[in-house]
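Recap from last week: sequence in, structure out.
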Amino acid sequence: MKLYVGNLSWETSTESLRTHFEQFGGVSDAVIITDRQSGRSRGFGFVTMDNDEEANKAIQECDDADMDGRTIKCKEATPRKESY
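Predicted structure tokens:
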């Protein structure tokens, strides 16, 4: 299951995001979305977890939780809408 993680601190790295979610189960991928021009974090990222049950536990535990001094948002990622 892929999770959306929002309201991340500018200091949060891909490695720290992965480590934070590994406490709930197996993480197959973690990425912080960055601005193409500046390379700076856009304040959100995605975590792909191996097991749906573990992902649901992570959502329950991490939504409105503190990470790197910010109250993060965590929910199941939804597919991006096509823009024409």
